[in-house]
Amino acid sequence: MCKNEPNNVVYVTFGSLATLNEAKFLEIAWGLANSNQPFLWVVRPGLVHGPDPLPGGFLEGLNGRGHIVKWGTQKQVLAHPAVGVFFSHNGWNSTLDSICEGDPMICMPCSTDQMMNARYVSDVWKVGLQLEHGVERNEIAKTIRKLMVEKQGEDIKDRALKLMEKATLCFKEAGSSYQSLDSLVKHILSIKSFTFGKQSE
């Protein structure tokens, strides 16, 4: 990834619990390939039901444009200047990691709070795009190109950077997140009637 220009790599990972069937996995693979953008895809053990469904020679046919790894340190990868888009399941930790690095998102929620997180990303904060018609290779490729090479992507990137600035301010000593956490810690430390979960006598 070090050889790539800034903001031109799609980073793809779906967390530690999500699973995909073979059909969805292949649609994502071909969508990434057809986008003509460099990508780094985390395919952890257990992501796909059954054996690796990638057709023989798939990666070789991309001439070094695509890389698949078993795991990655997400925050470090998202902080890399080459990353331009985060293709995610939109778990809360992943969503926050992306916001804190100013990376636009492609949203593919799988369950629970991911649905709401994805809607906030795409419809409220407008720092990403959600796949609206299921996991389909043409839509995936089209969405990647929208974010990476079209004017819409530039606007979304600008909003993502502005949201990153707001998040950074929240984490500073005078920021709202810092103050809320500090207030909680002080409150817990002020409770002297309980010690290690048992009421002191």
From TrEMBL:
InterPro entries assigned to the protein according to its UniProt record, in alphabetical order? UDP_glucos_trans
Q: A GO molecular function for this record?
A: UDP-glucosyltransferase activity
Name of one Pfam family that matches:
UDPGT
Q: Which SUPFAM superfamilies match?
A: UDP-Glycosyltransferase/glycogen phosphorylase
Tell me where the transmembrane regions lie: none
Question: Keywords for this entry?
Answer: Transferase
KW tRNA processing (keyword) present:
no
Q: Which PANTHER family match?
A: UDP-GLYCOSYLTRANSFERASE 72B1 (PTHR48045), UDP-GLYCOSYLTRANSFERASE 76B1-LIKE (PTHR48045:SF31)
By sequence similarity, the record places it as follows: Belongs to the UDP-glycosyltransferase family.
What's the protein called, per UniProt? UDP-glycosyltransferase 76F1-like
Whose protein is this, by species?
Answer: Prunus yedoensis var. nudiflora
